[in-house]
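Field reference: sequence -> structure
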Amino acid sequence: MVNKEKKYELITKYSYDPNAYALLQNDMNYFVEQNGFIGYRELKNNPVVLDDPIVASENLESLVRSFYSKEPNAIYVNISQEFASKLYGYDLGYRFCPYGTENVLDLDPALLDGKKVKSALKKAKKATLSIEEVDFDDLDQQRLDLMKTINMEFLENTPSKKEITFISRAVEFRNQPGVRFFALKHVDKGEEKCFGFIVLDPFFKNGQKVGYQLNAIRFRRTKIWGVYYSIVGILVEKLMKENYKKLSLGGLALDMFETPSPFPHDSKMVNRIISLGKKADNYYVVSNFTDMKLEFAGERIRRYIAIPEKESVSRSIFRFLRVSGIL
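Structure field:
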């Protein structure tokens, strides 16, 4: 049995994906072997694997084949093109489909040159918008309750009315290894007030922390225009000063831009996933965030779903949506 601290250690050592920290969220199952692991959730004993396996590259195939011998009906979601290519090469009978991307920024002052970003930063300065890092060990109960209330209010204003997890890690109001939590503040009628928060999850490459993924940004309704743009701009400036290289803005569901692929896509599967994804978007809106994230020019990392050939696409996507809490 590998505890959470050991899994975090393996993530820092072997992961290369900005979303890898999501594997440490609650309600996950793990297949552990080869000094590595595969993270998944189950629906009626059918596994839905999240992200790429965490293991040394030389042990990847052995880990995947061992998991396949135990769980041949498992589907993989949110996997990178790098791992999807290897899974295809293992010839285990999977079909593949792109279903979205993740926008990863190379931190550079040029990211702040966009018209909307410049305008938002100007308005943020006028509203004295700022971020303040939070240490939960030093947070009094009143401020903690305020953060939780803001979170509940935010969720109440979403179509789902609840926290959506799995692809994105749920917000937790406590200190966690590597995670950074910031309060969003501005001055209103001469008084500094907290009106939201952001959560940054660390990500690694070659054993080094290269930056963060913006896992959550939540705030109360405000008259300040362009809060998302200004907060990302403020983070870009802050992380550059701290000598980090990357900031991921998270997933862009249904971003189906064309890109060369080293393996074939199932065209029927692509069309079915787009159709199902649009229906899910009515329940848990992601398209607006996609538009805002694309305002920042970054590397759009292609994400894939892999489904066993004998499995129904609709049933597999239903499993994915159920374990995520979308349906």
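Note: Residues 29 and 59 are 20 Å apart (CA to CA).
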